[in-house]
Amino acid sequence: MNLALFDIDGTVTDHEQQFDGLYVGIVRAALDNPPIDTDWGAYPNATDSGITDALFREHKGRAPTVEELAAIRRSYRAMILDAQGVGGVIAGIASAWQALEDAGWKVAFATGNWDPIGRAKMQRADLTTEHWPLAGADCGMERGTILETGVRRAEAHYATTAERVVYLGDASWDLITTRALAMPFVAVGKRYATLRSAGATHGLADYEDRDAFFRAMHEASAPT
Question: 85 or 205: whose pLDDT is higher?
Fold first, then answer.
C-alpha cells in the first residue's frame, strides 16, 4: 500500500500555539510554577512524553510518575476540548484525505502528542479521524520510534504491507527524523520554505493545490 503518514500540529491542525499555552500551564502547576522554555526544539525529544520527562528531571530531579503523567494528560485533554476560539486546520486537509483515499492511498498519523491529545486536537478542529490509526508519544519519547510505530500500526490496521510511506510534517524535528529513517518527507505549513532549504525535497503551504499535493506525494524522497 501507499501510506500517507501525517503529523498533527501545524500539519493537520493550525492552533498549536494556543494549546502549547495550556500544556505549559498544566506542567508548571505540577512542578510548582518554574519558568518553562517553550523552544521545543531545544529538548532532547520534542514530544509530549520527552518534554515532560525532561522538565521533571530538571525541576524535580526525577522522572514523572505514572500517576503524574496520567493527571497531566487528563487535564490537558479536558482543557483542549473546553478551549474557546480555537479549531483551525491547514487549508484543504479534509478534502486531501478524501482525495488520497479515492486514489488508493491509506491514511494514518504519527505525532509527538500523547495519543489522546492528538485525537482531542483533531476533534476540537471538527475533524473525524477515529477510523484511522495513530501513533503518538504514549509509545515512546523519540520521534523515530513514533514514526516506526505509526507504520506498524497502519500495516496492522489495513492488513497489508506499506510499500511507500510518505511522512508529512511541519518542523525541523520531522525533517531530522525522516532523514535518519530514510523516509520520504513532504514539508507542510508555515515553515515549508525553511524546511525545503534545509533538505526537504518537496513542500506545500497547504493542501489546496491538489496537483501539487499529489506530485509531492509521488515524487518526495528522504531529506538530503
Answer: 205
Find the CATH number of the domain harbouring 127.
3.40.50.1000
Number of residues in the chain: 224
Query: Whose grid coordinates read 486537509?
Result: 93
Domains contained in the chain, number? 2
Q: Which amino acid is at 185?
A: F
* Cβ–Cβ under 8 Å, residues 3 and 108: yes
Q: Assess whether 75 and 99 both reside in one domain.
A: no
Per the listing, cell 473546553 goes with 82
- For 58, the domain range is 16-82
If asked whether residues 175 and 75 sit together in one domain, one would say no
Q: pTM for this one?
A: 0.96
**pLDDT tens across 119-177, in order?**
999 999 999 999 999 999 999 999 999 999 999 999 999 999 999 999 999 999 999 99
